[in-house]
From TrEMBL:
Database matches in PANTHER family: HIGH-AFFINITY BRANCHED-CHAIN AMINO ACID TRANSPORT ATP-BINDING PROTEIN, HIGH-AFFINITY BRANCHED-CHAIN AMINO ACID TRANSPORT ATP-BINDING PROTEIN LIVF
Protein name, entry field: Urea ABC transporter ATP-binding protein
Keyword Transport among UniProt keywords: yes
GO biological process, one term: L-amino acid transport
UniProt entry keywords in alphabetical sequence: Amino-acid transport, ATP-binding, Nucleotide-binding, Transport
Annotated family: Belongs to the ABC transporter superfamily.
GO molecular function, one term: ATP binding
Keyword Oxidoreductase (UniProt): no
Domain ABC transporter residue range list: 4-233
NCBIfam families in the cross-refs: urea_trans_UrtE (TIGR03410)
SMART domains, per the entry: AAA (SM00382)
Amino acid sequence: MSLLKLTNVSAGYGQTPVLTNVDMTIDKGDIVCLLGRNGMGKTTLLRSVIGLNKVIKGDIVFDADDITNVPTYKRSRYGIAFIPQGREIIPYLSVLDNLKLGLAASRKKLKKIPDEIFEFFPMLKQHLKRQGGLLSGGQQQQLAIARGLMCNPQIMLLDEPTEGIQPSIVQEIDETLKRINREKGVTLLVVEQKIDFAKQLAQKFFIMEKGAIAAKGKTAELTDSLVRQYLTV
C-alpha cells in the first residue's frame, strides 16, 4: 500500500523549478534511498514533501490525503518527520531540551520522552544535560534522528545522515534505522551519497538527474553501470 505518492511534481524556489515532473511512489514499510550527484534536486524533493519548497504543479499525496498545499507544521502531524542535512539541532540547548522540541509535533500529544527513544539511542541518556553543540557529529546525528522520532512518524525523511561521520557511527546509524523500520514500522526515505551505505540500508532506490527521476529499482539492481552513469563524479 502506498504511503507517499508524488505525481508530476515540479517544485523549487518561487517560480524557478528545481524538480521537473517527478513521479515517485513509496510504500508503507519501505526503506528507500534517493541518490544522485550534488545539485540534482534531492534535498529539494525532501523539502517539497515536508512543505518547505513551493510545489509549482503536480500533487503530493500522503496516506491517501492530498497534502500539496498543507502547511509544514500540519504535515508533521500527519506523521512526516524531516531530519535535515547538517542536523540543525539547537547547539545551546541541552540534549533533553532538544528532544523536547520533538514533543511539539507529536501526533500522540506526548508529555514526556518515551523510554523507547533511549532504547534506540542509549548514548543520549548519558548526555541529557549536555549542550547539543558539545556532542560529536555522530552523536548530534543520533540526537537529530531521535528528535524526529519523537513525533511518532509514519515516515522519516533523512538528508545525508552519514555526512561527516566516522565509519563506526555510520554502522550504528544503519543498524538503528533498520530497527526503527522493523520494530516501529516507520517508512524511511534517505538521501545518501555513500553507495555502499545505500545498498546496505535500503531495499529500493531512486536516482535523480537534473531534477527528474532518471532510474529506480531494487537496490540489488543498482549496477556498476548505473553508478558510473549517474553517480560517479
